Protein 1
Amino acid sequence: MPHTNVDLQGPTGRLEARLDEVSAPRGTAVLCHPHPQYGGNMHDSVLTSAAAAMLAAGLNCLRFNFRGVGNSDGGHDEGNGEVEDVLAAMAFAREQQSGDPLWLLGYSFGARMAWAAASQQPPHGLILIAPPLGLMDFSGTLPPQVGVHVLLGDRDDFAPVASVRPWAEALQQPAAVHVLDGADHFFHGQGEALEDTVKAVLVSG
């Protein structure tokens, strides 16, 4: 499918981004990558699998590099300014899509950024992949109209099922939890299973 390299206007300047488009989109998804200080960027394999699922479901996909990553301006801000980067990406997506549903997806560090951004600018649906609850703050609530889905592996040491499931079920609008058998935090060898799970979420949501 065709894609376009785009420059978003973020709070600290340019945000490097990639927009993949389908011929007759029924919405757009914004994808947030894992931790910048551990090699995370918009080309992460987990985001690639998620994007493939979303494109197959008829959604345009916008991936971007947080500040200080790749050709994005600025520097790492300990997860504070990065939330503003997500909001800038969401604003761009909404300008492009003319009112169609907006999905927001984040993986690991990106899940925390997506969670925080969703509380300020609620998307149609929110997908959190391997949210590291023990390492980052996932407190607060979202508007009840936001559909929340959590994807994780049963061998994830950073997002253990025993911690994530009770948190997800205790939310004001309980999140649907999807557990991939045999998957760790990095979903090694689980790309196809991850893609299938994201497709199932989009069908249900």
Note: Residues 3-204 form a domain with the Rossmann fold fold (CATH 3.40.50.1820).
Protein 2
Amino acid sequence: MLFFFVNISLITGIIGTIVVLKKMASIAGSISHSLLASIALSNMIKVNTLYTSIPFVLLASLFIHYVKRNKKINEEIALSIMWVLGVAIGIILINISNTYSSTISFYLFGNILFTDNTDIIISSLFSIFCILIYLLFSKEIKNIILDEEYSEIIGINTNLFNILILSLVGIAIVLTIKTMGIILLIAMFTIPATVAIKNSNSIEKCIVLTSIITFCCLIIGYYISYALNIPISSTITMTLVTTFLLSEILKRKRVIIWKIKH
């Protein structure tokens, strides 16, 4: 379990930082909620959810990229339609198959205890892959995050890297959805990075701090839920929110102390 927490923290450190800096929270939310369709499909045809969810998020990444590039389409509306359409299709498939099993419930609300050795291996490989991608293309990723138009001017293939980033976000959501569930997943990809950004002066430091915050919140949430016998994903979410609130309080106190001293 500890090893899985490390993998999730590393993935969240890189992907969460990109999501927050590129203001992709709504995109992450749309992908995670629309995933209900692929999860329901995999449950209906009795296959591993990865077999339907990975192709789904890759297609979703291409669709989102097309929407972002097409100025004639309202991005916010398109994402909203994708969000509700995925949920609607998922509910229909669940109803048709008449198989609202505990599996669907786990994916909706999350349960870290539902993970197995396969999840640990895949998350390990993906966390290593994310680290390698960032190390190899850190310059391009930073430029696209900071200024996409300038990136195009200096010759960076922004289309390719935007699709890559969207695909990584989608796959990260698929691999972490068991931990938090569709409903609470967005907290994992936004809160730690938001706290880290306010206390970092570089993207690398933000990634490291995001990973540390995520890991600590996972551990604390896990033991609190075990001690109080309450849902683990909700406990982790409350731990994340508490961390954010504490960081805001400490930040304001530092500002007040600085003003008093000066």
Note: The radius of gyration is 19 Å.
Protein 3
Amino acid sequence: MNVIVNIGSNLGNQRLNLSKAMAAIVNTYGDIEMSHAVESEPQGFESRHKFLNVCIMFATEQTPAEVHAALRGIERRISPASHRNPDGSYADRMIDIDIVAIDDMVIDTPELQVPHPRLAERAFFLKPLEEIAPGWRHPVSGLSATEMLAALPATDE
């Protein structure tokens, strides 16, 4: 199966953080496809630190739960800090690895939602996704990344 992942960083040496995450993923899964980096404002919280994001795609025979666990492990090895503040709000982070999609699967468990539940709202997910998987379509809406991008308000660019 093909797994599409978005990797983001808004603290420290962002390019190095992304590179460490991608190297760990390559060491685990082999070859990857990678998008160009996209800069974005934080979503869901206030911060003066912009994110740098890339989208990657790799093939694996692991189950979605195994992939999710492996990616969480990579995140923790790079930075064990929580992605949330004590009050539950989002926090700045050195690395954030989100599964965006797995082929045409729909998964809705407390641990994993695929496609990512906010995929259609986030240009920083959609622009790189459009680059590395232009033929992929959302398994519920049927929309491509290009169509979802076109539906975003201009202010989200």
Note: The two ends are 31 Å apart (CA to CA).
Protein 4
Amino acid sequence: MAELKYKRVLLKLSGEAFGGQNKFGIDIATLNQAAQQIKQAVEMGVEVAIVVGGGNIWRGSEAAANGMDRVTADYAGMLATVINALVLQDVLERAGVTTRTQSSIEISQVAELFIRRRAIRHLEKGRVVIFAGGTGNPYMTTDTAAALRAIEIGAQVLLMTKNNVDGIYNADPRRKPDAKKFERLSHLEALNLRLEVMDATALSLCLENKLPIIVFDLRAHRSIEKAVTGEPIGTLVSSE
């Protein structure tokens, strides 16, 4: 078995990842494939935490742009992430992976409240921890939640999954076939070039805390395994 480069990781699963080929809804077949990759990482000895997005169900920014109160729209988005977290938990449990869901907003019937020390203890026991509810605050994206939770639990890398895109490009490769892919970037370069890696708040958090980011396509063969063992995959964003 390959030697691990990263022992504890934070995996960000966007709402797009839940939708698979569809823009909205939940594609169980896609989640089953993701669950097998996560299970393999756990069996390799990796401690895996996951932050889920909710864009496949609800986009608060779009609702706010159409006149809805922004705070209310963002809280609705947090609830959407809870739905995704519960579905992912079920898929992982059926795959044989012990899983715990923690939410930043209190919803005790279905999830634990986020407690940092408890989350770390779950990871140490080999359980996958799913973080739902974003940061629990409006105006904050789930990208920011991913960066924040990764830093809080002491993750060694932030794994950012993209849908049908195998890294960071200088333009959308789905629209521009000649777009250039970056193999490696610094956090500052990603910020200054305004690349669509994640929002500026999340990227700044990673920069300040020297947290590396690997952006890759989750559906690629052995993608998580390659990421945690240090094999070249996607784009690496690092302060080194």
Note: The first strand starts at residue 8 and ends at 13.
